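User: Can you help me understand a structure? I only have the sequence.
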Amino acid sequence: MTSNGPLHQDALGRVHFIGIGGVGMSAVARIMVARGVPVSGSDAKDLPVMADLAAAGAKVSVGYAAANLGDAQTVVAGSAIRADNPELAAARAAGLPVLHRSEALAATMADDLVVTVAGTHGKSTTTSMITVLLQGAGLDPSFAIGANVPALGVNAANGSSKVFVAEADESDGSFLNYRPRIAVVTNVEPDHLDHYGTAEAVYESFDRFTALLPPEGVLVACADDPGALALALRTRERGNTRVVLYGTSDAADLRLHDGGPGNVAISTATGQFPLTLQVPGRHNALNAAAAMAVALELGVEAGSAAAALAGFSGASRRFEFKGECRGVRVYDDYAHHPTEVRAALAAARSVAGSHKVHVLFQPHLFSRTREFAADFADALNAADTALVLDIYPAREDPIPGVSSGLIAQHLGPGGRLVEAGAPAVDALTSAAQPGDIILTAGAGDVTAYGPLIVESLSG
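Assistant: Let's start by predicting it. Here is the structure, written out as tokens:
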């Protein structure tokens, strides 16, 4: 669902969130409460974030019931909420406006200078980097991020400045509900074809996204990514939007110099500035360049911006360190697209040095596996050991003939299917030697394996 233009939070009245415990929903609810909007909400389970929201002033219920709506005047429904949910059914029967999370967030940002971060990969990390950088440089932005960020303590907060930094999700087209002044696009690739249908529809949605920028707005795009660069060139051709490119490419306005860990710098119009990054990988260096570009647009001095990035320690499930035992380090990553898997394994290789990299990958969605099976295998073949679990179905029903075997048939000698649970853990721990890296990757419940692997290594 998209609107003709964003609402204003003053027009929402009392707001009820169905599925308030979700990471995206709780982010919007947290900011609304901080900005004085009366908020209530419910979720099927009593999640930790709900106690935080209740302490901040929200009225929170566990379990769904029509009575939880109370005197709500606007309802926000999470994307996982079924049509027969009693609260959603009651809201529709009462004629209450039902908003998508992005529409509710857009309403809270209506008076702010909005910075949105879109792209097929890297949104959460880049949004987090921008926020940490701006905080370190003395600004206090409001922010809403689709992942928890240890350096921030929360995934959303109401800041004292007029700047609002938000992750903009393209997966369902909802990023078109925002009205940014600065729009960052990290990359553009075909994904979420269960929603878009074709690659061309994906590209068109990003064109519509950049068309939302006002005359004084700016598109910040990655010159190293063919899709983002093509988008930037099309945007320039329209003639009404300024474009700033970042990357290692000669086309970049902000030039990244990436000589590996400890040797990263960015050249701007005012000079070259070294970057100290706690997160490995070329993709994270590019994300840092995007954050620098935004900071310069907001008037932050380049040296201060570069220095502030040293405070960024990563976002949850983005090459997140889970533990070390017997000299084996274990990391977890949300990577669920071939490009993301390739980037995560490149980061793992940079950390492992001369030692080996072992990955446990869980495909996410039948449709994505069908479209990208060979690409997934090609990415996974960068590891010394590549073990593949069954597909995590998420919101999809099985598709006949689609299984993890489509990936496995393209794997090299170090790759194979593996049974979930103890067999997967045992296979990894028996393969790993001191100095090696184990990486769990995927958007599903593969994230639970990290602690199990660390525990197995200690046994």
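Now, to help you interpret it: The radius of gyration is 22 Å. The mean pLDDT is 90. Let me know which part you'd like to focus on.
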